[in-house]
Amino acid sequence: MMINVKRTVTMIAAAAVFFVCGASTVCADSQYIDNDKVYSKEDEKTIYISSDKFLYNFDGNVAGVTVCGYAGSLTDIAIPEEINGRAVAAIDKDAFAGNKKITSLTVPSCIVDIGDGAFNGCTSLEKVTLSGGTQILDNVFCDCPKLKEIVFPYGISEINNSFRNCTALSRVKFSRGVSKLGDGSFNGCISIEKIEWSTGLYYLGDVFDGSTMLSKIHIPKGIVIIDGAFDDCSFAEVLELPDSLLYINSGFSGCTALRSVNLPDGLVYIGKAFGECTSLKDIKIPSGTNVDEDAFEGCNDIVIKKSGINAAWVVTIVIASLLFAACLIYTFIKAKISENTRNK
Question: Which one of 66, 208, 283, 334 has the lowest number of neighbouring Cβ atoms within 10 Å?
């Protein structure tokens, strides 16, 4: 009986592959085939692995490759701009969540979307370099206890609940493009000492609660609304507010070391903003500002005064009126001279 050697070898190889793939489904860590083809199939989604160990798929939501994990051993990770000639456009949700090896991360400008929880719980991550292509960062780098600083480049416009409980984070720098900091963005970042603001921000949500290392809270020009921004910053002694500010819905409760506050003249409303600021002794409320009855709850020794009309504002109005009158007189005289010249 003739034996087809080629066919027999093929069958043995196929059996070996089947054995490896079948057996590996029992252990998630050794589940996949490192051949730049199929990595896994789950939830009707096929995941591939590249030669440099990045996992990826095509989810249909972006026009390009979505990175969904890393199976290599490097600790300094740079997300590639392309994989096998295809442009990388996104990072999937939970893609690197819980990774305990990565110490530094670089995200290129081609990434237009980072999924929810993509880098949460990366307990060894110390450095993140972002590019301006990503528009929204939402719940991305929470619970990274070794991350020391973060710089937001121009192009990132909104940040929401992204760096919660990064307890080693000491420096945060915003670019001109960031216009909104949403609720929870840096809550629980107890080591923040320095915040470098830039123009463009108009709203501060529940952002820096519990940043206990801040000795001075400086709110930048352009901010219109503060809504829970710096509650329980217990080391802050000074609060600097911009003239652009109109509403303080909440924001400084539990700042027990706060000694002085200069409220801007144009402030329209103060909500439950300064509760339990026990070191605050006196404050001047601008004329016309509406104040919630619980705005200073627990500030037992505070003396509240209503300020009168701002003298500088009055001088400005008077000068502007005089200049306007002078312009009218000049225009009238010029018109008369022109009329007399025509009549001659």
Answer: 334
